Amino acid sequence: MSGMARPADIGILAAEIYFPKTYVEQSELESFDNVGKGKYTLGLGQLRMSCIGDREDINSISSTVVVNLLEKNHVSPRDIGRLEIGTETIQDKAKSTKTFLMNLFKGNEGIEGITTINACYGGIQAFFNTVAWIESRAWDGRLGIVVAADIAVYERGPARATGGAGAVAFLIGPNAPLVLAPIRSTYMVHAYDFYKPIPQSEYPVVDGHHSIDCYIDAIHNCYESLKQKTGTTKIEELAEYLCFHAPFYKMTRRAFNKMFLTDMLNHPKVYKADFSFTQNPNIKDPKVYEIVNRLSQEAWNRKCEPATFLGKQLGNLYCGSLPASLISLICDPTIDLKGKRVLLFAYGSGLASSMFTLYMRPDAQNFINQLRANNPIRDLLQNRIKLTPDEYTRRMDKRESDYVKTNYTPRDPLDEIPEGAFYLVKTDNKWRRFYARKIARPKL
């Protein structure tokens, strides 16, 4: 970047979300799975789950969200110097999703970046990497794109209700309205809480209880580290709003309660909770949890609930989960984020986690307006196509049997693909995948 001034206020210039048109009702899945009323809707806190047919895959949904980001924000593909994808949906064990996306940048082959993989954490690492590229001597003045996308599917059983599908793309550059703060915390250890060791299957091996413990342990360590680094002592000092990686809604509530319990124990005169019944208050203790949940309700409603909207409607987007939470927050018409800080917690099993802050500049109203106009999330959700649990299960069975097939042509209705989206046309006898874009025909 010889001759250029050092970039400042690096962060998010624009954002785009894409999710499939098809979904399934969690209440109907409860009946279908015979798990009892409220298991998914109350126990998990989920309402609907985005699901994908055989015409879409990780390459197509990533292509769709990138093209939409460029077109809606009038950005030329030639202005992009880095493109990095975070995903755990691996279509090919050697050829990355990023290389598929280079079809969108013909004539601009000098684009850095690759696919970053670690469960649900890859999208945030791609974000950190892209910001670091702009901060570095290697930066050439162009912009970066970060994609966080996944298709979360599970084998038959209660875990299937924690799936989802979608993609989020960020345009990254200097002088951004939404700026990444320089101080963050990271916590990474070895764990077998969720992993995908079976090459012939998309399905993970999951230790559910251990995974919850790992998540809570990670957020506790990240929170304590960030407070130490920033010289703060409680949530209120760090940010006005919070966004969490959301495997399911109740997980984020538990995570916030863990942070809140820490604040309560460190500031007993402020919160005045009675834990005299135990020498070591632990969030796993149902009695402790009930007290914390009650006392934290107002703070949760004000600081966290707005970011949970899309997660409850789409399910777990894996790498896209935390970015979708941020979009939920920005798109909430009742909230004025200008001049506010957002604390975000990223988590990926295995495990990798980080806690960091974004700052919305006071002059960011145009950015907020544009993001809301480009992402009419409530209208998009309203216009989705509902699948019955029977149809969803049939498609999942077919997806499972077709996973490694060659000479394959998708059969799901093309009507389920939105205008402007990419879709899979076929897979040939060498497992090569071919795509097209659905373009609206002019009305006569």
From TrEMBL:
Its EC number is 2.3.3.10. Keywords: Lipid biosynthesis, Lipid metabolism, Steroid biosynthesis, Steroid metabolism, Sterol biosynthesis, Sterol metabolism, Transferase. It catalyses: acetoacetyl-CoA + acetyl-CoA + H2O = (3S)-3-hydroxy-3-methylglutaryl-CoA + CoA + H(+). Residues 6-177 form the Hydroxymethylglutaryl-coenzyme A synthase N-terminal domain. The keyword Zinc does not apply. The active site is at residues 88, 120, 245. InterPro entries: HMG_CoA_synt_C_dom, HMG_CoA_synth_N, HMG_CoA_synthase_euk, Thiolase-like. Residues 182-438 form the Hydroxymethylglutaryl-coenzyme A synthase C-terminal domain. GO terms for biological process: acetyl-CoA metabolic process; farnesyl diphosphate biosynthetic process, mevalonate pathway; sterol biosynthetic process. Pathway: Metabolic intermediate biosynthesis; (R)-mevalonate biosynthesis; (R)-mevalonate from acetyl-CoA: step 2/3. One of its GO terms (molecular function) is hydroxymethylglutaryl-CoA synthase activity. CoA binds at residues 211, 250. Belongs to the thiolase-like superfamily. HMG-CoA synthase family. This is Hydroxymethylglutaryl-CoA synthase. It comes from Blepharisma stoltei.
